[in-house]
Amino acid sequence: MEAKNLITKTGFSHEGSRTCYMPGFAKYRPGPPVPLENRQWPNHVITKAPIWASSDLRDGNQSLEVPMSLEQKLRFFEFLVSMGFKTIEIAFPAASDTEFKLTRTLIENDLIPDDVAIQVLTQSREHIIARTFEALKGAKNAIIHLYNSTSALQRDVVFGFSRQQCIDLAVQGARMIKDYIDRDTSGTNWMLEYSPESFSGTEPDFAVEICDAVLDVWQPTEERKAIINLPNTVEMATPNHYADQVEYFCTHTRWRPQILVSLHPHNDRGTATAAAELGLLAGADRIEGTLFGNGERTGNADILNIAMNLYVQGIDPGLDFSDMNAVVEVYEDCTHMMVPPRHPDAGRLVFTSFSGSHQDAIKKGMARQAEHPERWEVPYLPLDPADVGRSYEPIIRINSQSGKGGVAYILEHRNGLMLPKEVAAEFSKICTRISDSQHRELLPHEIFTLFKQEYINITQPLCLKSYQEEVLGMDQAAVVAVLDTPQGERTIRGRGIGLLDAFLDAVHAIVDEKLEIVLYSQHAMTRGTKSMAMAYVQVKGTDGRITTGCGLSSNVSKSSLRAVVSAVNKRQAEPAPRSRQAEPAPRSR
Question: Does residue 526 contact residue 552 with C-beta atoms inside 8 Å?
């Protein structure tokens, strides 16, 4: 009897005797093939940079647990302009007063250069469109970005729409926008953009149909083009599948000469960069994304990564990343996110080799490079570090006395902790002081023990027992928490912009001091759904003093609140924050 490819009770497959550890794969379905005959994109070569559109202040900002303040947004906007971005999606003005205020602040204070267009998002609803135009009053160059979800799954599960109802909604919004522009006498240079959101889950023929229906209303010309943005809102298949979808659209729309085809890839499969590059091969003109891929869930396309990929292919990316350290500094300061140390272009270790053979090859390549400075050819270094303001740094080992970088490296690679630079700088001073006082080197396990004692889940004098969060709107949240205090159990309540801000507002009733979060970062300790989450928080009081706390939990929100409690407890410690802890005992010789 012929063996069948079945999973047995023991987990073995008769075919090839292969163990199946995750049989749940059978409930997932691959993306259906795109009906694209004679595809051309595999034969194409990218020869120029696309039009870049930064979504850091909108898509990126909405994914931050602690959103940027107005001051940080203005700084980030100026920073994006300085790098060469000519299109910046700044807000969804109708979503909140904060988003509206940013738009008005940029316009009223004349902070937008004449050659830069601001882009704003709107849904196909009359009061939202009206609020959007109110926010843009007086803008020099503005892009109105209309969207509605078009995927088969969203139409069925979320909206209960037929194809025609979905088209009617998009067309209705397109007409309202056109009517506003037709009546406008302000002199604003308007550009129109439409996104069939969840394009990657939309039937290719329907994506063409609904976009063409919108374009039939807008009537773009080759001189005044509209933008059709094709979002890979949820990355559902391999990058070549997305390229097929893009090429299908480009070759089937009736309006190709009159539009710019834009891409907005997300990173659910970890291939947003590849999807963007193959999408360019498939005919796209423009890419929306964020620096370092910051965005909801797994992130957006990383514009910096895509731009630098073009750069090392001999193509001018049209953006300035010549001072990568400054780019990282501004990004981390404004977003409180951390650039991974092995980020392809900007990580602190990307120009560091620990392998002796790699170091030897690079050393010889650097010596040979002097013979042909007009071209870059060095083994293991596709990018000249000097082009981004960096240098090659061969490091064989890092001990506990090598400063904040060494301490951070040990905690990351041995214990899975990715310390924000501010926390690393503070903790390294503690390590140095103890090492100096004991006249010896601290071992890696001692460094980790000391870090746990100093920062993680500090429960005296306050201890978080439970909490409940309520989301009140786009930016607002409320929290009710129960804490153990020296005076007994207390129930506290607060409101704020997000969970942490609301919790600090509640804590104010106990500590009688107004505190604000000046740093927040979190990450998973390991891979997998059962991973513990580590959160880092720095809070600042009215006296200007900043204290650090960390929280560890299987729940991200709980780890964040524990970090806040740890930081608050450190402020309450007397006489000094470390006096409650014993220093590591000297090693026996």
Answer: no
Answer whether 208's CB lies under 8 Å from 170's CB: no
Q: Encoding tokens for residue 146?
A: 């209309």
Q: Rounded CA gap, 92 and 102, in Å?
A: 10
DSSP letter string, 524-577 = ESSSSTT--EEEEEEEE-TT--EEEEEEEESSHHHHHHHHHHHHHHHHH-SS-T
Please calculate the CA angle 30-31-33 and round it to the nearest 5 degrees: 120
Distance from C-alpha of 467 to C-alpha of 480, rounded to nearest angstrom? 6
Q: Please give the C-alpha separations between residue 520 and each of 67, 135, 336, 481, 501, in angstroms, as whole numbers.
A: 10, 30, 6, 20, 11
* Per-residue tokens: 546: 């900043």
Burial degree of 463 (CB within 10 A; 0-12, 13-18, 19+): middle
Give per-residue pLDDT as tens, 98-156: 999 999 999 999 999 999 999 999 999 999 999 999 999 999 999 999 999 999 999 99
- Contact (CB, 8 A) for 345 and 323: no
Domains of the chain by start residue, with CATH: 47-335 (3.20.20.70), 463-572 (3.30.160.270)
CA dist 256 and 276 (Å) reads 19
**What is the Cβ-side half-sphere exposure of residue 236, based on CA atoms within 13 angstroms?**
19
Decide if 478 contacts 495 (C-beta within 8 A): yes
What is the Cα–Cα distance from 450 to 582, expressed in whole angstroms? 9
Q: How does pLDDT run across 319-351, given as a tens digit for each residue?
A: 999 999 999 999 999 999 999 999 999 998 888
Instruction: Name the pTM for this structure.
Output: 0.74
Q: What is the DSSP letter of 502?
A: H
What is the Cα–Cα distance from 189 to 174, expressed in whole angstroms? Answer: 17
Question: 527: alpha, beta or left, given left = phi > 0 and alpha = psi -120 to 50?
Answer: beta
- Can you give the pLDDT at residue 578? 45
Hunting for tokens 């740093």 — which residue is that? 519
Dist CA 571 CA 516 (whole Å):
13
Taking alpha carbons only, the member of 116, 217, 117, 130 closest to residue 175 is: 217
The amino acid sitting at 408 is A
Structure tokens belonging to residue 286 = 């423009």
